[in-house]
Every structure is written in structure tokens, then in C-alpha cells.
């Protein structure tokens, strides 16, 4: 028996859906109401949207407490660029429309309380949100990004086995931070005023791939729209209703607007790294946290892939500006403890290489170097006690040095940080400064 359906648009959608599934890839977007999705989540009725997509992004309306009218515009521009210009195939972009700062029913949910359950339920790897505030006569736009625990484990966690002549166990690293200020830019009134018309045009489909073609449809709320084909700077988009139309894929955001795209390009670049170890592009438009994240990835690639004698020196050269190893310095660098943790690992990798090992002056020099690295980690852990790899590495180094109690303490604090996301007042102080070895 053959099943039939009277709606030709529905049949078209089934054909496209089957094509996407059998091809193993998808490029689709969806606009969703934040409050409705949260209510479905509370009622246990939430469904996974664009389930065939391998890489999943969520973009939330930017908070707009000063009523600039730009919250939806900025989010629309970023979500559109993610979908149209992603560096990976098989992506789904969920565009959440609504006010993150507004209390949610009786739950009084705000900010991260809304972001985290939504992205967790949808299996989102990268979430983007932000805030827009008036600054003088213009506006300041802060864009934030959060990476899921799953993608942090699969793509941005590494380990280094310590050679027997140096120590025991493995040193671990997780690129950080997983939640970061990605960009902060200031726009004049004239520059800000151009964003809304750009965003409005991105939500309306044209009949043909040119700026003079009439509009034929509006991107719907609550329905999937999918990429069909590209033609120059245009892309054809299909709706579940069976309608299709054209949107700009490039060239839609120029001048000051183009600065915003550093955020979406960085998010896409992170997933490209997960897909094929392709490093994200380093842009001057990114905030320090994002730049520190990229520099850590660069250093990891150097340490992992280069058998060169001085690979660790190249890595340290890139990391030194972020994490100078100065006695008593406890200020948190961009990215938190993560970048200093990698800095310490690079020092130990240098110690383990034969050329560097021959320069050591016996066992005392080796122990002094190990203790110096442990002190570096202890200092940074006091200012950022939530970075579990730093605490685990401290436990490994203290154990090698024979410092039994500090090793146990570091292990306990690492377990507490892993289970709760934070620990109370930090109890781990650096060991006494090493004394110069005697000639």
C-alpha cells in the first residue's frame, strides 16, 4: 500500500528531509520562542529540533536594557552568518527569540538559568548571547559564547604522559574558558542604525537572487528552514510549507556591521577545529578571552604535531604574553587558569626533551624546575580555583616531589571543583620559593 498526502508542500519537505538524512548532512535554521521552549522543557514535552544536524548552534536575542532596539537585529545577523557561511557541513542554527532578562513565569529564571537548560536539552555545542548598552551617544555590544561540556571533552581536552625520568602519571589540559566574552565593540548612532534594516532583510525571502526581486515569504517562527543551493552571493532557502526564496549568503553585512561577524566566524571556526583540526582565524575584533583560546589551540598543535627540538619554545613564545611566570603574581589572565596550565605543561615538555634534559645540572636542577612549575600552577589556581586540570596537575607534580599532604589536598580540591563547579576558600598555597642550586 502506498501512503499519500494531499499537501504537495509536505511531500516536498519529506523529499528534502530524506535527502538530508541519507546524505548525512544538513544545513538548516529555526526561529524559536524562548518562553514557549522553556515551558515545554518544564512540562517534559521538549523535542530536539533539526535533529539530523551534527553541529548545533544556538543564538539568543541580545539583552537590551536601554531599549536600543538592536537585540534581535544583532542576533539575527550572527545566526544568519552561522548558517550561510559555516566552515562545517551538517549544521543546525537555533535562533531563540525573546527576552533573557525577563523573569520566566513562577520560576524567576534569568540569564544562564535560561540559556543552559535550553542548550543542554537541544545538544547545542556553541551558544551565543550578549547585551547592548548605550555608551555616550552610541552603543556598546558585548557578545558572549558558551561551549558545551561534551564538545569541551571531545575537542578541547588534551593530555601529556610524563616520561619516567621526569615523573609519573599524565598531565591534563582543557582549553579555556568554556564561557567567554567573545567581543566588545562600540558603534556610533549612524553605525548602529544600519543594523536593523540589514536584519529585517535577512528574515524575508526574495523571489530571485537579486536585490530588486520582490519578497515572497517571511522566515517562520517555530518551523525549520533549510539551505537548498547557492548561486554567487545568494542562497536558496526552502520552508516546510513548500515555499522557497533567496537570501544573501555574503555581502549582507559590510562596514561597521562586518565587525560583528568575527563572533560567528569564531564560533564556526571552533567547530571546524573539532571536525578537522583547522585552527580558528585570529581576528583583532575578538576579545582577549577568545584570542587566548585560539593561542592555546595553536600551542597544543605545535606541541602535538612538531617533533622539532624547540617546539616547546615556540609554544612558550605564544603563551608567555598571557601568562608571565612571575613570583607572587595572582591576577587571572584572559581565559582563566587554563592558559597558565598549558604554559606549565609546555615547560615540562621542554624539560622532557633530550636536548633540554642534557642542559640540566643533575637531580637538584630537575627537582627545582619541577617545583618551579608546581609553584606557577599553585599561584594561578588561587585566583581561578575552578579549573580542574590545573588542580589535577598540581596533585601529579606534588606527588612526584614527595609532598604527600599538598598532593592529597590538590586531589580533594580537584574532585570538589569537578562535582560542584567551584570550591570554597582556596586552601592551596604555593610551596616556598626554590633556592638556587649550588654549583
Briefly, what is this?
The chain is an alpha+beta fold and 439 residues long. It contains 15 helices and 13 strands.
Report on this model:
A nine-stranded mixed β-sheet has the order 8-5-4-2-3-1-11-12-13, sandwiched between helices. Strands 6-7 form a two-stranded antiparallel ribbon. The termini are far apart. The radius of gyration is 25 Å and the shape is elongated. α3 (71-85) packs across α7, α9 (288-305) packs antiparallel against α10 and α10 (311-319) runs antiparallel to α11 (337-352). Residues 1-25 and 422-439 have low confidence and may be disordered. It is α+β, with helices and mostly antiparallel strands and 439 residues long. The protein folds into two domains: 8-152 and 183-256, no CATH class; 306-439, no CATH class. The protein has helices spanning 8-23, 34-42, 71-85, 112-122, 149-155, 189-193, 195-202, 261-276, 288-305, 311-319, 337-352, 354-357, 362-383, 388-401, 404-420, and strands at residues 27-33, 55-60, 91-97, 126-135, 138-147, 157-161, 170-174, 179-187, 204-206, 215-218, 224-231, 234-239, 244-248. The chain is built from 15 helices and 13 strands.
Amino acid at each position: 500500500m502506498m501512503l499519500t498526502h494531499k499537501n504537495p508542500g509536505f511531500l516536498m519537505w519529506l523529499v528534502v528531509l530524506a535527502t538530508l538524512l541519507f546524505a548525512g548532512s544538513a544545513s538548516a535554521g529555526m526561529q524559536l520562542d524562548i518562553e514557549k521552549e522553556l515551558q515545554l522543557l518544564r512540562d517534559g514535552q521538549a523535542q530536539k529540533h533539526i535533529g539530523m544536524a551534527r553541529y548545533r548552534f544556538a543564538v539568543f536575542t541580545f539583552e537590551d536594557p536601554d531599549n536600543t532596539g538592536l537585540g534581535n537585529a544583532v542576533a539575527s545577523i550572527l545566526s544568519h552568518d552561522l548558517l550561510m557561511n559555516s566552515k562545517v557541513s551538517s549544521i543546525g542554527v537555533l535562533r531563540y527569540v525573546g527576552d533573557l532578562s525577563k523573569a520566566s513565569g513562577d520560576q524567576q529564571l534569568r540569564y544562564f538559568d535560561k540559556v543552559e537548560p535550553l542548550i543542554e536539552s537541544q545538544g547545542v555545542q556553541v551558544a551565543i548571547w550578549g547585551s547592548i548598552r548605550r555608551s555616550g551617544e552610541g552603543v556598546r555590544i558585548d557578545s558572549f559564547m558558551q561551549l558545551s561540556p561534551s564538545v569541551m571533552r571531545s575537542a578541547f581536552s588534551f593530555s601529556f604522559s610524563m616520561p619516567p625520568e621526569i615523573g609519573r602519571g599524565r598531565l591534563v589540559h582543557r582549553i579555556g574558558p568554556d564561557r567567554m566574552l567573545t567581543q566588545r565593540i562600540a558603534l556610533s548612532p549612524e553605525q548602529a542604525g544600519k543594523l536593523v534594516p540589514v536584519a529585517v532583510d535577512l528574515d524575508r525571502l526574495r523571489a530571485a537572487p537579486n536585490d530588486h526581486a520582490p519578497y515572497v515569504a517571511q522566515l517562520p517562527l517555530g518551523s525549520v528552514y533549510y539551505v537548498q543551493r547557492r548561486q554567487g552571493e545568494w542562497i536558496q532557502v526552502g520552508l516546510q510549507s513548500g515555499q522557497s526564496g533567496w537570501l544573501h549568503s555574503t555581502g549582507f553585512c559590510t562596514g561597521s556591521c562586518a565587525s560583528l561577524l568575527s563572533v560567528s566566524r569564531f564560533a564556526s571556526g571552533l567547530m571546524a577545529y573539532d571536525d578537522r583540526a583547522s585552527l580558528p582565524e585570529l581576528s583583532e575584533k575578538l576579545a582577549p578571552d577568545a584570542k587566548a583560546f585560539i593561542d592555546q589551540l595553536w600551542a597544543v598543535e605545535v606541541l602535538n604535531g612538531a617533533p622539532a627540538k624547540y617546539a616547546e619554545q615556540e609554544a612558550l613564545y605564544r603563551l608567555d604574553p598571557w601568562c608571565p611566570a612571575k613570583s607572587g603574581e595572582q591576577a587571572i589572565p584572559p581565559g582563566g587558569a587554563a592558559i597558565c596550565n598549558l604554559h606549565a605543561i609546555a615547560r615540562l615538555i621542554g624539560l622532557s626533551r633530550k636536548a633540554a634534559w642534557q642542559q640540566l645540572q643533575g637531580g637538584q636542577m630537575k627537582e627545582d624546575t619541577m617545583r618551579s612549575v608546581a609553584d606557577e600552577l599553585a599561584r594561578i589556581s588561587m585566583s581561578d580555583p575552578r579549573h580542574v586540570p590545573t588542580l589535577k596537575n598540581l596533585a601529579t607534580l606534588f606527588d612526584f616531589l614527595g609532598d604527600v599532604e599538598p598532593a592529597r589536598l590538590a586531589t580533594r580540591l580537584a574532585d570538589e571543583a569537578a562535582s560542584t563547579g567551584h570550591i570554597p576558600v582556596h586552601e592551596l598555597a604555593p610551596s616556598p620559593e626554590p633556592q638556587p642550586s649550588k654549583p
